[in-house]
Write a structure and sequence with these properties.
two-stranded antiparallel sheet; mainly alpha; single chain
């Protein structure tokens, strides 16, 4: 059942409070958008500075940066719509403001769900992959048995005893 509630059925006092709260909130939305955008751009620049990265690392970092930029755009658009509503009080601006926030939170929620599913899949898959032996020998250390005390000593080939 859908209820049709228009802004005209709300009191002037309620509408003024909504406008005041949106005016306060929109500054934080713009701040988060700018920080998110700067972080994504920094990540992209860092890709070109680190030449030793594998192609998979570059693609994942690029995809995450693009998603961060898209989310930042929705936050910034919501901030602008909030500013317009706070000035005009028009119902269309309030609806547009809420629509941008809804899209931002929907995408963020979907990304979080996707990350959780991916971590569960890789966690369960990791349970069935046999462990590679991680020995001290693989770190270029040798273990010698001390016959008198029955204790092992570590000797690095590069440092001696």
């Amino acid at each position: 059942m859908k209820i049709d509630l228009t802004l005209s059925s709300l009191s002037i006092e309620t509408l003024d409070r909504i406008r005041a709260e949106i005016e306060k909130t929109r500054g934080w939305l713009a701040f988060l958008a700018i920080v998110s955008l700067a972080s994504a751009l920094f990540s992209i620049v860092r890709l070109f500075i680190r030449p030793q990265s594998s192609i998979l690392d570059v693609l994942v970092e690029l995809a995450l940066s693009v998603l961060s930029i898209v989310l930042a755009v929705f936050l910034f658009q919501a901030s602008l719509k909030g500013k317009r509503y706070a000035k005009s009080g028009k119902a269309e601006e309030l609806t547009a403001y809420h629509g941008k926030l809804k899209t931002y939170f929907t995408l963020t929620g979907l990304l979080i769900i996707g990350a959780l599913v991916l971590s569960l899949i890789t966690g369960f898959a990791g349970m069935f992959v046999p462990d590679r032996p991680r020995t001290l020998h693989s770190l270029n250390y040798h273990c010698l048995q001390d016959s008198q005390e029955g204790q092992a000593r570590l000797i690095s080939p590069s440092l001696g005893e």
